[in-house]
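Office hours follow-up: a student asked to see two folded examples consecutively, so here they are.
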Amino acid sequence: MMKKFTLLLLLTLLIPAFYVSGQMGTRQAGFRGGYRSGLFYQVTHEEGYAEIGYQMLLSFKDSGLQFTGLKIIYEATLDDISPNIFVSYGYGGHLGFIYSDYIKFMGENYYLSHERFLPLFGADGWLAAEYRIQDIPLVVSLNWKPYIEMTIPAFVRVVPWDFGLSVSYIF
């Protein structure tokens, strides 16, 4: 039952991403390592003076699955240092679930009577500096993705330390 639900969720979330990507300029896929690490897919296009990216991150944590969607805005490069370094910021949200017999809240562990399915949802921020390698279609990014989430039953978790390193291939 759970495998069917997970497969259906993945297909529901990823099929629109491939449809939208055909209308965008650049696509990239890669891996993000960090507190909430996972695989991501991003589509980017020019909009006015900015470059706008839509990123979908699929991460696995605490025997669960989380899907994060982010809107990322690239407005400036650090030309003084290198024309290949881009700064970005953004926002988004996530939803998913975990299986756990405890919930960590404000530095305390709250234990449940048994391991259970806990749905969650939250809001995410994004700040990054990325280096786009010109000779090969590769992007390396140092990023910060703080988030706040609510786990049902009603526990709110604030995670300001989600720093990550991403590597992606542009196609």
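And the second, which I mentioned at the end of office hours:
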Amino acid sequence: MKLLLLVTAAALTTSIYSLSFTDADGNTVNMSSYQNKKILLVNIATNSPRVAQLAGLQQLHQQYGDSVAIIAFPSNSFGNETRSNAQIKQFCLQNYGVTFKIAAQGSVSGMAMQPIYGWLANAAENGVMNVAILRDFEKVLIDKNGQIIGVFAPALSPTSQQVVDAITDTNN
């Protein structure tokens, strides 16, 4: 007698809330601390031509911080980040008044990508899509249930109506 085991796709996925990252100060941050909030993940680089988007991200943090957590992931994956973690944090604070969470620098593409970006890149893990990060300042919005609900191009301002509407939409 054979036993047939049916496994749903949802059972194979990994929850983003089971992941963690290291922040710019060296502390471990569990994604579970962001449950019941939307999360905007943004890969940043302080030497990127789009670095001024940090001001828009800070504006979002100030306006919508009760409902969305913004997490910046500094990366030299595209050759635009030469600063250390402490220097990145200082640059973001001094030049853009950043008070949202900044992760430690790490890869957002390729074989050595950080676990959260590995989760984004693998539909089998996140249950939605393969999100390939191709440039600095790509933005990915996660809903209150830990599902990817938006991927926004690097050129799109974080304060654009499209991003704000996705953040303020109470249906997800």
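Two things to take away from it. The chain is about 25% helix and 20% strand. The longest strand covers residues 38-44.
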